[in-house]
Amino acid sequence: MELIVKTKSLLSQAEVEAIKSTGSNLIFVSKYYPIIIVKSNNPSAFHHFSFVERIRLARIGKYSTEGNFLNNVIFRPMIQATLLKKNGYVGWGAKVAVLDSGLPLGLNVAKIMDFTGTGSTDRFGHGTFVTNIIKYYSQGAKLLIGKIGNDYPSEVFLIMALEWAVDEGADVINISSGFGSKCIGNCELGMLIDTIVNNTGIAIIVAAGNNGPHYNSIQCPACASNATSVGAIDVFGKLASYSSRGRTCSRKPNILAPGDVIIDGKHANGTSYAAPIISGILAATKNKHDNIQQAVQTMYDTAESLGLPFNEQGAGIFNLEKYLGVIEYGRSNSKGEGQN
User: Fold this and answer.
1) Rounded CA gap, 211 and 64, in Å?
2) Per CATH, is 2-57 categorized as 1.20.120?
3) 100: closest CA among 140, 43, 62?
4) How far is residue 5's CA from residue 2's CA, in Å, rounded to a whole number?
5) pTM higher than 0.85 for the full model?
6) Predicted confidence (pLDDT) per residue in 37-96, tens digit
7) What is the spatial distance between Cα 260 and Cα 271, in angstroms, rounded to a whole number?
8) Rounded to 5 degrees, what are φ and ψ at 35?
9) Where are the domains of the chain?
């Protein structure tokens, strides 16, 4: 079994050797947060180590979407990429990591890493669709594809892929999958995301989940404090019934974007589709900001409120016109709710 082991601090070489001495297979040692991943059928072998804080089984997640994954995408309501292109925002110099179900056939990417050992090709179709949305908004961006699962994403592979994306120089990381909604962001995966964002300034964009209309249903790792959690609106521009809601008084999700699409004449929806809109537009406009987190804050500041509680809408609906107004002219037509 695959175990995630939280240690009290980053491991010394002597502590690494102590872990290996149990006969366990040490898969991964984080450089950013004190966790390791091991394969072992004997979790109790680690309990006597004074440097071990807690141990748990790694999770298998699901992708945050419903429907088939085809081509020819129409969002409802539509956010037009032409608004970006006519202002010259196509993502030159930006790197976007897509941590999903694999490499779309026929797509040119900067780098691919298959963590599953099953081949880099996307057999499920989810990663293909998410990647195409990002590419639609940021045609000039370099894509880093990290395959973390086929039909179901692996938490172990996601942790490994996150650090790989950082090492590859990603500006934006997109995660359109989740690992349950019984987390408040303080698990090892959530804390790793918080540490990466704090240390590097990378924007990590995560689908909020499709567990609405229930409250306290934001999936992990969208619940991580420093993740940009993206919920969805429906075809009428209202909060989608399926879009996950946060805990009372929380600001999760952080922002909303269209989650409803028509793909080759077939309908599909999910927060999986909303997250890559935000990722793609951040990549497209990267060069207009001193840092990508400044761009995220501008998205919050220019979002359009639905008049709902923060734990349903966050800052509100992403508004491309107002966002571009600020980055072009330093102003928007009206003030959004904002977040800090």
Assistant:
1) 9
2) no
3) 62
4) 10
5) yes
6) 999 999 999 989 999 999 999 999 988 765 544 455 677 788 888 899 998 999 999 999
7) 9
8) -135, 150
9) 2-57, 62-329
